[in-house]
Amino acid sequence: xxxxxxxxxxxxxxxxxxxxxxxxxxxxxxxxGRVLEIQSERDFIRIEFSSGFFGAxxxxxxxxxxxDLLWLKEGREIRGELLxxxxxxxLNSIWPSTDSxxxxxxxxxxxxxxxxxxxxxAAFRDTGEVVPEFALYDQDGNLFSxxxxxxxxxxxxxxxxxxxxxxxxxxxxxxxxxxxxAIKSEELNDICLISISLDPRFDTPGVLKSYARGYDVDxxxxxxxxxxxxxxxxxxxxxxxxxxxxxxxxxxxxxxTILIGPDLRIAYHVPNSSWDVEDFLAKIREMxxxxxxxxx
Length: 296
What we know:
2 domains, Glutaredoxin, CATH 2.40.50.320, single chain, about 300 residues, five-stranded mixed beta barrel, alpha+beta
């Protein structure tokens, strides 16, 4: 008798679930799928995802932030937070979700985590030391790791898009923009300007893409990085950045601008946001003349 009741209860539950699926009801929350179509003129995308008890493939049209349309592409695997609002679905906090990239990020950042723990109180890396292993996403939703820096002269700093102190992130980002223009003007090759977000929960690739365009620094030579919180915390510790939550400022933090050579070693660094564009440009020119021996 009990078995019969259990079977009947299961059948009723399954029928309700399938009926809800057929009606198109979707609960608010995380969703993962593939971009089928981008409707830029309406700020909509159409995605394919698995739903229901049997994981059936479904399609859904969702509204997205215009900033996300700057990096999304048809065929791209993504994840985000689904929300039903005003008789339509919205997809917020959109991230890339390619299995191979997620695996690479996990593997490389495990190395970073272990290295940070092993270094302990001596985690800070000074001039002459190699930058640590890491892997994050850039403003185009592509994987970016330490290997992308090999053979290039790089300038790295930490920022976040909601920073409201003119003398901090905005000032440093404007200097990066000026440095980018000088690099283009002088046709200097193999240069990479890196801005790592201190606020990865808010600074998705789309947010960073929009921010970079606002400062006229969205270019192949300029990468804005974000991703899981832990590797960014580890990078902060190893690269000399202190930060903490702040009710008024969102994040209170120090700054350090770092010049990294083609051999992945820290060649020069300046604390706070007072670094000088001409100073770094002169050092970039000098390093570009050298023929460095790259590490394996």
